[in-house]
């Protein structure tokens, strides 16, 4: 349920109403938008009478029920105002959101050694990326495949952060590793295979680093948004949703089917910013540019692109990784598409 306050409602009145709602056993959450203040209410609101709440203050403009199964992540919960995720990095704050430039996250699938991770960081930074990605802990289908260097790779990511000033995005697979990874990472990635690892979702929800939540390979959009709801329900609203391709009947020519329709669909359902990953989405480096262009044209807030100094020798995901030279070219072409979209020139909001 949301309570929309009239423009100019005094702060003291909002606080008074918040306390009164708490006494009713609800959890009020104040959401300050560009024009209005909205109080989000979660809890057992089904039995609450809308008129009863309406009468609690003359400053209430409207009381509305959130009809979706996901509450805090829904666009209704913020009364149509898109949220932004602002990530402090050594090079300055980077903002993910519909009214900001497209943020590009690039780097290898796995952190292999110091030289390659630092070199990749410097190259992707020079091309315009704002974050370095790279896995220290890798979720692999085979237990015999390279599993990532683990803790020692976190130190290498720290070295690459120091050398480049880029923010770091890296995957966390185990609740026991969250604190350790959060010491180095600027954004914690939850991979497709862990999208419904509820213990992990609760754990990252209870800490304060932003979270990149990848869509499970067989997850519906509702499943994905409900997974995000777990993180917000624990108090962390800094979540970015990443589409990375889903499994369908056809996987002959691409590794997954990259669902670009999520861009307008998510925009109609949730206030959270989004990312598209054409590298895992297609599994082939030669298709990355086309899908990345499409994603920008449709309106994604950010992209994740795998880049490796020598893809043929990569310990994981070589076939989908771009060389640094190819990435330079891709970034130039993407900048042209972004210019055409007029992104950031008019504010995107539903109200
Ligand atoms: C990755 O980002 O390297 C990764 C393993 O992604 P996903 O969880 O989407 O497969
Ligand atoms: Mn990968």
Overview in brief:
The protein is an alpha/beta fold. It has helices at 11-23, 50-54, 114-127, 151-164, 178-182, 198-205, 221-233, 262-269, 278-282, 285-298, 324-341; strands spanning 2-5, 27-32, 37-42, 60-64, 85-89, 92-96, 103-107, 131-133, 167-171, 187-190, 211-214, 239-243, 274-276, 302-306.
Topology:
Layout: E1 2-5, H1 11-23, E2 27-32, E3 37-42, H2 50-54, E4 60-64, E5 85-89, E6 92-96, E7 103-107, H3 114-127, E8 131-133, H4 151-164, E9 167-171, H5 178-182, E10 187-190, H6 198-205, E11 211-214, H7 221-233, E12 239-243, H8 262-269, E13 274-276, H9 278-282, H10 285-298, E14 302-306, H11 324-341
Parallel strand pairs: 7-8, 7-14, 8-9, 9-10, 10-11, 11-12, 12-13, 13-14
Antiparallel strand pairs: 1-3, 1-4, 2-3, 5-6
Bound molecules: phosphoenolpyruvate and manganese (II) ion (MN).
Residues 109, 280, 306, 316-317 line the site of manganese (II) ion.
Describe the structure.
The relative contact order is 0.13. The protein is elongated. It has 351 residues and is an alpha/beta fold. The chain is 33% helix and 19% strand. It has helices spanning 11-23, 50-54, 114-127, 151-164, 178-182, 198-205, 221-233, 262-269, 278-282, 285-298, 324-341; strands at residues 2-5, 27-32, 37-42, 60-64, 85-89, 92-96, 103-107, 131-133, 167-171, 187-190, 211-214, 239-243, 274-276, 302-306. Helix 3 packs parallel to helix 4 and helix 10 (285-298) runs parallel beside helix 11 (324-341). A hairpin with a 4-residue loop joins strand 2 (27-32) and strand 3. It has 11 helices and 14 strands. The structure holds phosphoenolpyruvate and manganese (II) ion (MN). Phosphoenolpyruvate binds next to loops. Manganese (II) ion binds at residues 109, 280, 306, 316-317.
């Amino acid at each position: 349920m949301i309570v929309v306050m009239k423009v100019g409602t005094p702060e003291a009145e909002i606080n008074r109403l918040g306390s009164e709602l708490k006494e009713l056993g609800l959890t009020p959450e104040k959401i300050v938008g560009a024009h209005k203040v909205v109080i989000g209410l979660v809890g057992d609101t089904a039995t609450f009478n809308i008129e009863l709440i309406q009468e609690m203050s003359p400053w209430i403009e409207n009381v509305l029920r959130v009809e979706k199964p996901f509450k805090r992540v829904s666009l209704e919960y913020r009364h149509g105002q898109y949220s932004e995720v602002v990530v402090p990095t050594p090079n300055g704050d980077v903002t993910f959101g519909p009214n900001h430039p497209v943020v590009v996250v690039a780097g290898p699938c796995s952190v292999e050694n110091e030289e390659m991770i630092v070199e990749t960081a410097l190259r992707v930074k020079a091309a315009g990326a704002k974050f370095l990605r790279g896995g220290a802990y890798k979720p692999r289908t085979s237990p015999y495949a390279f599993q990532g260097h683990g803790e020692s790779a976190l130190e290498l990511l720290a070295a690459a952060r120091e050398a480049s000033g880029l923010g770091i995005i890296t995957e966390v697979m185990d609740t026991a590793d969250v604190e350790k990874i959060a010491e180095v990472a600027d954004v914690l990635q939850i991979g497709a295979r862990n999208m419904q690892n509820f213990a992990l979702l609760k754990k990252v929800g209870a800490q304060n680093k932003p979270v990149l939540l990848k869509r499970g390979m067989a997850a519906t959009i509702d499943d994905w948004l409900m997974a995000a709801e777990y993180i917000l329900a624990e108090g962390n609203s800094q979540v970015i949703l990443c589409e990375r391709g889903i499994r369908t009947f056809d996987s002959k020519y691409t590794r997954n089917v990259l669902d670009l329709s999520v861009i307008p669909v998510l925009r109609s359902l949730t206030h959270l910013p989004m990312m598209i990953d054409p590298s895992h989405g297609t599994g082939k480096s030669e298709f990355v540019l086309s899908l990345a262009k499409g994603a920008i044209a449709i309106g994604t807030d950010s992209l994740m692109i795998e880049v490796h100094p020598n893809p043929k020798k990569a310990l994981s995901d070589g076939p989908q990784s771009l060389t640094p030279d190819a990435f330079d070219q891709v970034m130039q072409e993407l900048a042209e598409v972004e210019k055409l979209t007029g992104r950031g020139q008019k504010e995107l909001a539903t109200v």
